[in-house]
Amino acid sequence: MSLTWDVVEQYVRADDSETVTALLLTAGEQERRSFAAELTTRIRAEQDDWWRRSRHPAGLYALAVIACTPSAARAAGLLSRPAMRRWNEIPVDRFLEIARARGLTWTGDLGVRLCAAIPAEGLWPREWSFVAALLTEGRAEPPVTEGVVASWLGALIDSRLDESADLSLLHPLLPAVFEIDGIGSSITAHTWDSKPGFPTVVTWLIESGRIDRAKVLEMTVDRLARGDRPVALREFTALHEALDPAPAELAAHASSYARMLGTAPSTVAGLAQRCLRTIDDAGLLPLETLLEATAEVLPRTEKTLVRTQLTWLGRVARREPGRAVEIAEAAAGAFGHPALDIQERALGLVTRLLPQSDLELRKRLAVTSPGPAAAGRAVPQVGGEAVPQTGGGAVPQAGGGGGRAAAAMPAAIGGGAELAEEVVALFQAEDAVRWERVLAGLVTVHTSGDTAALGPVLDRYDGRFSFGPQSIYLLEALRVVLGRPERDDDVRWRMAGVVQAALPDSSRPRSSASPPADLLSLRIAELAVRQSGHPLPVLLATPTDVTGAIDPDVLVDRMARLETAGLTPWPIDFEQALLRVRAGSGTPARAGTLTSARGRQLAGWLAAGGLPDPVSTRKVQCNRGPDGEIVMRRVMAELDSTRADEDGLRLEDLFLPLRRTDHPRYFGDRDHHPGVLAMALPRHREVIAAWALPDLAALADQDARGAELLPLLADAGGPAGPAMVLAVTYGLAARHEADRIAAVDAFLVLAAEPSPEPPDPDGADRPTFDPAGGALPSPDPAGAAPPPAETANAVLPSSDLVGAVPMSFAARVGVEVGDLGTDGTIKVGRVVSALAEAHQAGASGAVWEVLAAAIPGLLPHAPRGLPDLIELATRVATAVGARATVPGLAEAAGRPGGNRLAREVRRLHTALTR
Question: Which residue in 215, 523, 532, 846 has the fewest CB atoms around it within 10 Å?
Answer without folding.
Answer: 215
